[in-house]
Amino acid sequence: MNLIVIIYISSNIWLLILIANLFLVLVKDEIYDSQDFYIKLVYYTIFCVLFIGTLYAFISSFITGLTLNKETIIRTFILIVTNTILLIIDDKLHAHIKIKNEKSFLEQQNKVYENELKIIHQSNDIIKNLKHDMKNHLFVLQNLYTSGQHQEIEAYISTMVKQMDNGVFCNSGNFIIDSIINFKLGTIEKATISVNITIPDTLNIDNYTLTTILGNLLDNAIFALNSSHLKKLDINISYVMGNLVIMIDNSYNGVINNNLTTTKANKENHGVGLSSVRNCINNCEGELEISYDEEIFSVSIIIPA
């Protein structure tokens, strides 16, 4: 009977330690990420149930009068150790996936920043050259005006504007959105591109969420665009009644996967990208709508901002 009391007290101590550790981990490490918080809560709850069940089976064997033997102790110990190891492995895997996603985001963001700096330097060089040659340009424009060649004036000015805007598809004032769009669209060759953005300079959306959603959607659109004969891309982003509205229409080859996953060669990373987009939209309590016909694939997203 004394042995049963000792086991009962020990099991309760283990249970208290487990519960304390559960709340420490949840409150200290995961409270800032609601999705991770609930995932952790489910995992730890399952572990608690398994742990309590194991102890209950072990203790009840004595209460019902079963004989204590080495085999029973070993089996119970193995069950407890197994449950603990499974929890540790799951925790490590979850941490590894989170670190991997954060690393991927940082790498993508660094590329975006590098490209934006490159565009800024190119624009500065073009402006310097225009200032240096401005006298010559004005002289040409004056002669064209004097001779009444108004169409030539319009064409000349249009050429100058295009040279200044070379590599700049978006200049909304929102640094993150401008950087992502300029970086992604800079990789497209020979396509009809339309970009229409009317948003405030700052949005109530963290950079990680914005980069994940817009970056992955543009990756998918560009990939589909390159495999189509029409090669058309329309991007419309607006701010309506406290919501960020993103609409992307792109041409594609007319082939749709049944579950709208991927036709890319790199299916693993592409699947992760689509999953990240859906997770971000769900976390923001936003909405995602997909539609398509034989030539155009359309994605519409509404996110509180």
In short:
This protein has 305 residues and is of the alpha+beta class. It has helices at residues 2-29, 34-63, 70-146, 150-164, 175-185, 207-226, 267-283; strands spanning 192-198, 232-240, 243-251, 287-292, 296-304. Helices cover 65% and strands 13% of the residues.
What does this structure look like?
The chain is of the alpha+beta class. It has 2 domains: 2-105; 170-305, Heat Shock Protein 90. Helices cover 65% and strands 13% of the residues. The chain is built from 7 helices and 5 strands, in the order H-H-H-H-H-E-H-E-E-H-E-E. A 5-stranded mixed beta sheet has the order 1-2-3-5-4, with helices on one face. The radius of gyration is 30 Å and the shape is elongated.
Helix and strand arrangement:
Layout lengths: L1 H28 L4 H30 L6 H77 L3 H15 L10 H11 L6 E7 L8 H20 L5 E9 L2 E9 L15 H17 L3 E6 L3 E9 L1
Parallel strand pairs: 1-2
Antiparallel strand pairs: 2-3, 3-5, 4-5
Helix pairs in contact: 1-2, 2-3, 3-4, 3-5, 5-6, 6-7
